[in-house]
Amino acid sequence: MQDEEYMRQLSLGIDTAFDTLVFRYHKPLFGYIYRLLHDEKLAEDIVQETFLKIYQQGLKGFVPDQFRPWMYKIATNTCKDYWRKPMSRLEYATDKEIEGTGQVHHIIDYQLERQWMVESLNQLSIDYRTVLYLRFYQDLKYSEIALALDISINTVKTRIARGLKLLENILIADERERG
Fold first, then answer.
1. If we measure between CA atoms, which residue out of 107, 46, 98 comes closest to residue 72?
2. pLDDT tens sequence across 15-44
3. Is the pLDDT assigned to residue 110 strictly greater than 50?
4. Distance of alpha carbon 146 from alpha carbon 154, whole angstroms
């Protein structure tokens, strides 16, 4: 069944339809938000807030034309709301410090390369980083990214092209420093 049909069912009061959407999209949504915010606890909170907003819209009878871009738009806007609240950033940073750095990391080439890529992506502005994550990690089409971010397809194409070029320059510079 299509996601939009689950939203229709939710609008009719069938809560199990919402459970299916959560099951289907929790992991990819968490991955997207975590890559933007770099904080596991905060990412989980924003995923929950995103699903709460989806649920509330469904109960009001709203059914999006395309569910995935609409969901990512809600998630992106929720992240933007978070960044507009300096107090909440401070609270979460404090929580992160309290957790400490007692994690054990296994050093595997793949993980190092992946970490290097993520660190390089994180050097990009939020505009470039967001379109690259949506395209390459969430596998959204240009048109879906445009809907999710409320920008034109040409802007999506431009940001992806420029973002990739900037990323290439960052990776080349990092490689020179390492080599």
1. 46
2. 899 999 999 999 999 999 999 888 899 899
3. no
4. 9
Cβ 134 vs Cβ 72: under 8 Å: yes
What secondary structure letter does DSSP report for 60? T
Which residue reads 């299916």 in tokens?
20
Residue 4 DSSP label: H
Has domain 1-103 been given CATH number 1.10.1060.10? no
pLDDT at residue 100, as a whole number: 42
Residues of the chain with CATH 1.10.1740.10: 1-103
Dihedral of CA atoms 36, 41, 47, 53 in degrees, nearest 10, equals: -110
Q: How many residues does the chain have?
A: 179
105-179 folds as Arc Repressor Mutant, subunit A (1.10.10)
**Which residues in the chain are classed under CATH 1.10.10.10?**
105-179
- For 114, other C-beta atoms within 10 Å of its C-beta total 11
Indicate whether 93 pLDDT > 90: no
